[in-house]
Design goal:
With 1029 residues, this protein is α+β, with helices and mostly antiparallel strands. 54% of the residues lie in helices and 19% in strands. Strands 1, 2, 3, 4, 21, 22, 29, 30 and 31 form a nine-stranded antiparallel beta sheet that branches. Strands 14-13-18-19-17-20 form a six-stranded antiparallel beta sheet, covered by helices on one side. Helix 10 (324-353) runs antiparallel to helix 11 (356-379), helix 13 (421-451) runs antiparallel to helix 25 and helix 13 runs antiparallel to helix 28 (916-945). This is Acriflavin resistance protein.
C-alpha cells in the first residue's frame, strides 16, 4: 500500500482537519494586527540634558562631550550623535537590533549615573526617552478654542495637560500622549526699569521677596497625650491677583508689588508652535503601547475623542495627521490586488489546461491554502502590512503550482492510462509527490537565509520570507491531500465538453508550436553547441556589465502614499511671530492645492517632547500634508512636490526648503537620501568645506534641493565688562549676568500651585518694550550698591555671529550637506556626487564620508549577497540527495543565470531600480526557476530508467513537460502582475520584486526548455567519455 493510499483511507479526518484550518484561518485573519510596514528602525535612546542659561558652546564642552564619550563605550552602539543648543543638549544613541530598547535604556541610564557627579552644577536631571517605530505617533490631534469661547491657547494647553491627556491615557490601547505647541502657561511679573531705579530695587530683590512670601511655612507641632496638631503659616497665593498684595521691603518701609508691577496670567516666550489644518492649535500625538496594534490604538483614540468633544464643547478637536487612511486604503487595495491575482491565475490555468473540472480542482486549493497561511501568521505573531500582504499575493502563483502539477498528472493518468478516478488520483499523486516536494522544498530553502541575514534586510524581508514559507508549506500539504481526495469526485474519464474540446484544440495548437520550436532548437543545439550557447553567454555578460549600471540601485524604492513632508528653515533671527506669517502663506498654498485633505505644522522643539522632533531649532519646521491617494488624482506625488517647491521658493523669508514624500528615507536615522558629512575640529573650516561641497552638488543631476545643517548666522551681543568699574560699583560678572538674564529673559521667582495641576512658574522681568532692541540694552540701568549705572558705562557691547546649533557625530564635530531627490537612483546620484567632489581639497585632519541612504544600502546589499550565495549552496546540496548525483544539480541550476538575464532587462524596461526587494526577487527566483528544471530532469531520469536512450528521453521530457512548465510559470507570473502594476498604496516599495520575478520567469522558462536539456546531454556525454577511459 502506497503512502497516498494509506492516508486517503481517512477522508473524514482529512476533511475535519481542513474545516478546522479554514475556521481558524478566518478567525486569525480578522484578528491579525494591521500596520503599514514592519517595524524596522534601529533601537534608539534619546537623552535630553538641560543646563539653563548656558550657551550652546558651554553645553557642548561641559555636558555633551563628557556624556557622549561615556555612552560611546556601551556595547552594540552603532552611532552617537548630539545637537547642542543654548541651554539644551540632545544626544541620540543608536544600537544594533540585538540590543533591544529596554536593555539599551538600562545601559544608558547606568552610564549617566556613572558620570553625573562630573557634570556641572545647575544641570537639570537628565531625561531619557526610548525611540523606535512604536514612538512614531499613530495620530496627531489639533485642539483649538472654538470661536466665541474666549479661551486662549495657553488655557487650551492647560486643559490638554491636566485633563485631556490623563483621560486618553486611561484608554488601554493608548501607550502615551505627548503635547506640543508652545503657550506653556506662566504668571508674568513685569516691572518698568525706571520704577526699579526710582525705588533702588533690582529684579533679584523682587524675586527674593516673592520666593520668601509665596510659601507655606511650618511653625511647629502641638503635642499632648491625646493628639498631635501641626501648625502652619499659610502664605501661598490661591490666585495670581493675590500677588499684588505681597510687599517688597525698602529702606525702613515697604511697597506693594501691585504698585510697581504688571501681573498677568500669560504664557512663556514661544520657541515652538503647532498648527492643525492651518489653524494655531495645541498638538497631541497619540502613541501606541509597546507591541501595540496601530489600528487598535487609532480606533480607540477616535472613540475617546468623541467623548471629549461632548465633554469640552468649547474646544475644537480635529485630526491633523493619522496613519488610519493610508493603512486602510493600502489593505483594501492589497485585498483587491489579491482578488485580481487569483482571477488571473485561475484564468491562465483554465486556458492552458482546457478542463473546467481540473481547473476547479486546482482553484480550490487557493482559499484553503490562504486560510491555513493566515492561521500560521497569527500563530507566529506576524501582522498584516504591505510586506506580508505582498507575500500573500506573490504566493498565489507559487502555491497553485503544486496543485496544478498534481491535478494535471492525475488527469493524465486518468486520460492516457485509462485508470479509474480513484486509482488515477493515487498513482498520479504518488508519481509526482516527491518531485513536487523537492520543488517546493527548494523554493523554501532559498528563503531560509533571508530569515537570518541580520540587519535592516532581515527586519523588512523576514516577514515576507516567513509568509511565503508558510504558504508554500500549506500549499504542498493541500496539493497532496485535498486534491487527490477530491479528484475522484471532480474529474471524469469521459469525453470533454464541446467548449473544452475547442479550448483544448487552441491550447494544444499553441503548445504544439512551442514543443516543435523547442525540439528544433534542442536538436540544433546538440549539433551546434557553440552557436546556441554563445549568444546566451554574451547576453548574460551584457546584462550584468552594461545594463545593470543603467538600471541603478536604491536601498528601497520611493513610493507615492499621498503624504508630502515639507522641511524648512526661516532666515536668521526671525521672531516666531514673523515665522508664523511665513507658515500661513505656505499653508494657504497647500489648502488650495487640488486633493488636499489635512496637514500638521510643527516648528521648533520642546525638551522631552520627542515624537514632534527633538532637535529642531526655533527657526526650523516641518509640515506634513495628506493628499487623496494616487488613484483619485491626476498628478503623482513627485509632480506635486515639484509644484509646491517652486511655489514656496517665491515666499520671502525662507532660508532652506526641502519638499519630499513620506518614506523618502527608509530609516528614520537617515537624515536625507544624500548626506555628505564633513568632520574635523575647526568649525570655520567645516563650514567653508560645507559651502564648497553644496555649491558643487548643485550640478549633480537628480538632486532637487540642498542644505547644510548649520551656519554662523545667529546674531548675538557680547557684553565685555570693565572689571575695574564692576569692582568699584560692588559688582561681579556673575551678578551682572544674572540680573540681565532675569530682566531680558525672565527669572523664575516662585510658583502658583493649583490643586491637581502642574505648578505655574512665576517669572519676573522687564516690560516688553524695554528688552526688544540694542538701544534698550545699552541704556539698561544696572542696579549697584552705589546706585543705578548705565550698562554702557560698565561694559562694551560687540556684535558677533555664532552657530545656532553644534552638531557632533561619533565624538567628532561635524557638518552635514543634505540633498533630496525625486526618483533618480541613489547610485546614479552618488556617482555624480563622487565626480563632483573628486578634486575637492580636504585639509589634513578633516574627513568626508558618504552617509545618507548609500551607507545602509551597501551594508544591506552585502548581506543580501551573502544570503544569495548561501541560498545557492543550500539549493545545490538539497538537490544532490534528490537525484543521487553531484552532476544533475549543476544542470538544474543552469536555469538561474538564464533567469537573471530576464530579471535585469525587466527592471530596465519598466524603469525600476535594483533595490533590496529586487534582490529578494532574485533569491526567490532562484528557488522558483529550478522547479521547472527539477520536473524536466525528473522526467528524463525516469524515462531513462525505463530503458529509453538519452535523446529519446530528453525529447520526450520536452514534449511532456512543456505544458506543466508553461502553466506553472504563467500562473506564477500572472499572480505577480498586480504587484508589478502597483495596484495598492505603498506597493511601489515592493514592485521591483515582482518585476524581477516576472522578467526572470519569462526569459528563464523560455530558455530552460532548451539550455537545461542541452547542458544535461553535454554532462552525460562527458560522463560517458570519462567512464570509457
Amino acid at each position: 500500500m502506497t503512502f497516498v493510499e494509506r492516508y486517503l483511507k481517512w477522508p473524514h479526518l482529512i476533511l475535519a482537519l481542513l474545516f478546522l484550518g479554514v475556521v481558524l484561518g478566518i478567525k486569525s485573519f480578522r484578528e491579525l494586527p494591521l500596520n503599514l510596514f514592519p517595524d524596522a528602525n534601529y533601537p534608539q535612546i534619546v537623552v535630553v540634558l538641560s543646563l539653563p542659561g548656558a550657551s550652546a558652546e558651554d553645553v557642548e564642552k561641559e555636558v555633551v562631550i563628557p556624556v557622549e564619550k561615556e555612552l560611546a563605550t556601551l556595547s552594540l552602539v552603532r552611532k552617537v550623535r548630539s545637537v547642542s543648543r543654548d541651554g539644551v543638549g540632545v544626544l541620540s544613541v543608536e544600537f544594533e537590533y540585538e540590543k533591544g530598547l529596554s536593555a539599551a535604556q538600562v545601559d544608558v541610564s547606568s552610564a549617566l549615573d556613572r558620570i553625573l557627579s562630573d557634570l556641572p552644577r545647575g544641570l537639570l536631571p537628565p531625561r531619557i526617552f526610548k525611540v523606535s517605530d512604536v514612538t512614531n505617533p499613530v495620530m496627531t490631534v489639533a485642539i483649538s478654542p472654538k470661536e466665541g469661547s474666549n479661551l486662549t491657547l495657553s488655557e487650551v494647553r492647560r486643559l490638554a495637560e491636566e485633563y485631556i491627556k490623563p483621560s486618553l491615557l486611561n484608554v488601554p490601547q493608548i501607550g502615551d500622549v505627548e503635547i506640543f505647541g508652545g503657550y506653556q502657561p506662566e504668571v508674568r511679573v513685569e516691572i518698568e526699569r525706571d520704577t526699579l531705579a526710582r525705588y533702588g530695587l533690582s529684579l533679584a530683590n523682587v524675586a527674593a521677596a516673592l520666593a520668601s512670601q509665596n510659601t507655606n511655612w511650618p511653625a511647629g507641632i502641638i503635642r499632648s497625650n491625646e493628639q498631635e496638631i501641626f501648625i502652619k503659616i499659610p502664605g501661598e497665593i490661591a490666585r495670581p491677583e493675590e500677588l499684588k498684595d505681597l510687599t517688597i521691603p525698602l529702606k525702613g518701609k515697604s511697597i506693594r508689588l501691585g504698585d510697581i508691577a504688571r501681573i498677568t496670567l500669560s504664557h512663556e516666550d514661544r520657541n515652538s508652535l503647532f498648527h492643525g489644518n492651518g489653524r494655531p492649535a495645541i498638538g497631541l500625538n497619540v502613541l501606541r503601547p509597546e507591541n501595540g496594534n496601530v489600528m487598535a490604538t487609532i480606533e480607540a483614540a477616535e472613540k475617546a475623542l468623541k467623548k471629549l468633544k461632548v465633554q469640552y464643547p468649547e474646544l475644537s478637536f480635529s485630526i491633523a495627521d493619522t496613519q488610519k487612511n493610508i493603512i486602510k486604503t493600502s489593505l483594501s487595495n492589497l485585498i483587491g490586488a489579491l482578488r485580481d491575482a487569483i482571477i488571473l491565475t485561475v484564468a491562465v490555468i483554465f486556458l492552458l489546461m482546457a478542463r473546467v473540472r481540473a481547473t476547479l480542482l486546482a482553484a480550490v486549493s487557493i482559499p484553503v491554502t490562504y486560510f491555513l497561511t493566515f492561521f500560521l501568521m497569527k500563530l507566529f505573531g506576524l501582522e498584516l502590512n504591505i510586506v506580508t500582504m505582498t507575500a500573500v499575493i506573490l504566493a498565489v502563483g507559487l502555491l497553485v503550482d503544486d496543485s496544478i502539477v498534481v491535478a494535471e498528472n492525475i488527469e493524465r493518468h486518468l486520460r492516457e492510462k485509462g485508470l479509474s478516478p480513484r486509482q488515477a488520483a493515487i498513482s498520479g499523486t504518488q508519481e509526482i509527490m516527491l518531485a513536487d516536494l523537492s520543488g517546493t522544498f527548494t523554493t523554501i530553502l532559498v528563503l531560509i537565509p533571508i530569515m537570518f541575514v541580520g540587519g535592516y534586510v532581515e527586519k523588512i524581508l523576514r516577514p515576507l520570507a516567513m509568509v511565503l514559507t508558510m504558504a508554500l508549506t500549506a500549499s504542498y500539504i493541500v496539493s497532496v491531500t485535498i486534491i487527490p481526495l477530491l479528484a475522484p469526485y471532480v474529474l471524469r474519464a469521459g469525453e470533454p465538453s464541446r467548449f473544452e474540446k475547442f479550448l483544448s484544440r487552441v491550447s494544444e495548437g499553441f503548445l504544439e508550436k512551442f514543443r516543435a520550436f523547442y525540439l528544433t532548437l534542442f536538436r540544433f543545439g546538440v549539433r551546434y553547441k557553440v552557436v546556441l550557447i554563445m549568444p546566451a553567454v554574451l547576453l548574460m555578460v551584457i546584462s550584468v556589465k552594461k545594463i545593470m549600471p543603467l538600471v541603478g540601485r536604491d536601498l528601497m524604492p520611493p513610493m507615492d502614499t499621498g503624504i508630502v513632508k515639507i522641511s524648512f528653515e526661516v532666515t536668521p533671527n526671525t521672531p516666531i511671530e514673523e515665522a508664523e506669517k511665513i507658515i500661513r502663506k505656505m499653508e494657504n498654498t497647500l489648502e488650495n492645492y487640488p486633493g488636499f485633505i489635512r496637514m500638521a505644522t510643527v516648528m521648533g522643539s520642546e525638551p522631552g517632547v520627542i515624537s514632534f522632533g527633538a532637535d529642531r531649532t526655533p527657526r526650523q519646521g516641518m509640515i506634513t500634508v495628506h493628499f487623496v491617494d494616487r488613484f483619485h488624482r491626476k498628478e503623482n506625488i513627485w509632480q506635486i512636490e515639484n509644484h509646491l517647491y517652486s511655489e514656496f521658493l517665491k515666499i520671502p523669508g525662507l532660508k532652506t526648503l526641502h519638499v519630499f514624500e513620506f518614506g523618502a528615507t527608509p530609516l528614520s536615522s537617515i537624515a536625507a537620501p544624500v548626506d555628505v558629512m564633513v568632520s574635523g575640529s575647526d568649525p570655520r573650516i567645516l563650514h567653508k568645506l560645507a559651502l564648497e561641497i553644496e555649491n558643487r552638488l548643485y550640478k549633480v543631476p537628480g538632486l532637487v534641493s540642498l542644505s547644510h545643517t548649520w551656519d554662523f548666522d545667529r546674531q548675538e551681543f557680547l557684553i565685555k565688562p570693565n572689571l575695574e568699574k564692576l569692582s568699584f560699583y560692588g559688582l561681579t560678572p556673575e551678578i551682572l549676568a544674572r540680573e540681565m538674564a532675569m530682566g531680558f529673559s525672565g527669572g523664575k521667582a516662585s510658583f502658583w500651585r493649583v490643586p491637581e495641576e502642574r505648578p505655574y512658574v512665576i517669572k519676573v522681568r522687564f516690560l516688553p518694550y524695554e528688552r526688544d532692541s540694542l538701544e534698550s540694552l545699552l541704556n539698561y540701568m544696572v542696579p549697584t550698591p552705589k546706585g543705578p549705572v548705565p550698562l554702557k558705562e560698565l561694559a562694551t557691547v560687540e556684535k558677533d555671529f555664532v552657530r545656532s546649533v553644534i552638531v557632533r557625530d561619533n565624538l567628532s564635530p561635524v557638518i552635514d550637506v543634505l540633498g533630496y531627490r525625486r526618483k533618480t537612483a541613489i547610485s546614479h546620484i552618488q556617482e555624480g556626487v563622487g565626480k563632483a567632489l573628486s578634486d575637492l581639497k580636504v585639509p589634513s585632519g578633516y574627513k568626508l564620508s558618504q552617509e545618507g541612504e548609500v551607507k545602509p544600502m551597501k551594508e544591506s546589499f552585502a548581506r543580501l549577497k551573502d544570503a544569495l550565495i548561501l541560498s545557492l549552496i543550500l539549493l545545490y546540496f538539497s538537490l544532490v540527495p534528490t537525484f543521487r548525483s553531484f552532476r544533475h544539480p549543476i544542470t538544474i541550476m543552469v536555469a538561474i543565470p538564464l533567469a537573471l538575464i530576464g530579471a535585469i532587462w525587466g527592471l530596465l524596461l519598466v524603469d525600476r531600480h535594483f533595490c533590496m526587494p529586487a534582490s529578494m526577487g532574485m533569491i526567490l527566483l532562484s528557488g522558483v526557476v529550478v522547479n521547472n528544471s527539477i520536473l524536466l530532469l525528473d522526467f528524463i531520469e525516469k524515462a531513462r530508467q525505463k530503458g529509453k536512450d538519452l535523446k529519446e528521453a530528453v525529447e520526450g521530457a520536452i514534449r511532456a513537460r512543456t505544458r506543466p512548465i508553461l502553466m506553472t510559470a504563467l500562473s506564477t507570473i500572472t499572480g505577480m502582475i498586480p504587484i508589478a502594476a502597483e495596484r495598492a498604496i505603498g506597493l511601489e516599495r515592493l514592485s521591483p520584486l515582482a518585476v524581477v520575478a516576472i522578467g526572470g520567469l519569462l526569459v528563464g522558462t523560455i530558455l530552460t526548455l532548451v539550455y537545461v536539456p542541452l547542458f544535461y546531454v553535454f554532462l552525460e556525454k562527458v560522463r560517458a567519455l570519462v567512464s570509457r577511459k
